Structures are given as C-alpha cells and as structure tokens.
UniProtKB/TrEMBL annotation:
Cofactor requirements of the protein: Fe cation
Matching SUPFAM superfamilies: HesB-like domain
Keyword annotations of the record: Iron, Metal-binding
Entry-linked PANTHER family: IRON-SULFUR CLUSTER ASSEMBLY 1 HOMOLOG, MITOCHONDRIAL, IRON-SULFUR CLUSTER ASSEMBLY PROTEIN
Keyword match Transmembrane helix: no
Protein name (database record): Iron-binding protein IscA
GO cellular component: cytosol
Organism annotation: Psychrobacter arcticus (strain DSM 17307 / VKM B-2377 / 273-4)
GO BP term, example: iron-sulfur cluster assembly
Gene3D superfamilies: HesB-like domain
Top-rank lineage group of the source organism: Bacteria
Keyword Nucleotide-binding: no
Any one GO molecular function term: 2 iron, 2 sulfur cluster binding
Length: 106
C-alpha cells in the first residue's frame, strides 16, 4: 500500500490541474547518492500496464514492479519550511539515509 497525506495529495492535484492532463504520478527509485537509492517522481499521462496502481485521497499513484518491493508501505507528505519545500517520504523499508537526506538504503 502507498498513501499520501492530504497536503501531498492537494499538491499533486494542483499540479495535475495546472498541467491540464495526467492520470496521476509515478513513484519509483533509482540508484543515486552516497547511500545508494533515491526517490523519483514523474507525472503519468498514459499508465504502463506493468505498474501497480494505488488511489490515495483522489490521486492515482503508479509504482513500477522493480520499485514496489522497496516502496511498499510508503507514506508521502509535502512540507514547507521557510524557503524549502518538497515531498517527505516515510518508508518502513528504509534502514538508513545519507547525511543530506538525498538518498537512502533498504
């Protein structure tokens, strides 16, 4: 299961509305950073037949099969602190992260 907080869902809905198209967002991982893995977000206009689709607060979230094992149970939030804003990920599979918070290990 992948879920979003209301703040995260609202942010995604606003972006999709501003784009004028899109089925939802794809959340995945890629190799990056000093800890090994980083989150990747992209808009989905045409879903891939291999993706797993979740619904959270009116937003469709698509996960590719390779990323699903690392992201199962993920909770996405959206935070604003001063000039910084962005998605925050609470991942029960995560065992550690780098000092700057850009990458993680499982």
């Amino acid at each position: 299961m992948i879920e979003m907080t209301e703040r995260a869902a609202q942010h995604v809905r606003e972006f999709l509305d501003n784009r004028g198209k899109g089925e939802g967002i794809r959340v995945g991982i890629r190799t990056a950073g000093c800890s090994g893995l980083a989150y990747v977000l992209e808009f989905v206009d045409i879903p891939d037949e291999n993706d797993t689709r979740y619904e959270s607060l009116g937003v469709s979230i698509f996960i590719d099969p390779k990323s699903l094992v690392y992201l199962d149970g993920l909770l996405m939030d959206y935070e604003k602190e001063g000039l910084n804003e962005g998605f925050k990920f609470s991942n029960p599979n995560q065992k550690g992260e780098c000092g700057c918070g850009e990458s993680f290990t499982v």
